[in-house]
Amino acid sequence: MQRLLQADTAGGHAFHKAHEFSGYALAGATPLAIFSSKGSILQRTADFLFSVAIPVHSHITMNAVVTDYLPKAARGPARVGVLGMSVVTYLGIMKMNLAGPGLTETVKGLWRKPVPAAAPAAKK
Q: Which segments are annotated as binding site for a ubiquinone?
């Protein structure tokens, strides 16, 4: 557990490789998500790559920020907070992927024009 809390320093080579490969996954999944059609297997693949790569990459990176900018006395509680947010991020993305439209469609929806609501039928 201690190595997971100190993902930037205590993990050594394994966490360095995880950070590197999660970066590759993000770089590969992004164009896949952008250019794939709605609901396609490519889009679902990108969504599930994101669900792992985003929390892993951000967890290791935020631990480096904690190491660089916080005094030693504050690092322990901050690392617990980082781990908690990494878990919440993973669960949130997975919920969107499994019970919603998926991460890709959710983000693409930010650029779509809203569909106007139908006018209610007039009473006679």
A: 69
Taking a C-beta distance cutoff of 8 angstroms, is the pair 101, 47 a contact? Answer: no
| Domain boundaries defined on the chain | 2-111
* pLDDT tens digits, one per residue of 9-29: 666 778 888 889 999 999 999
Output the known binding site for heme b.
57
- Give 89: exposed, middle or buried? Use CB within 10 Å, 0-12, 13-18, 19+: middle
Give me the CATH topology for the region 2-111.
Answer: 3 helical TM bundles of succinate and fumarate reductases (1.20.1300)
This prediction has a pTM of 0.84
C-beta atoms surrounding 2 within 10 Å = 8
pLDDT digits (tens, 9 = 90+) for 44-80: 999 999 999 999 999 999 999 999 999 999 999 999 9
Amino acid 65 reads: V
The binding site comprises: 57, 69
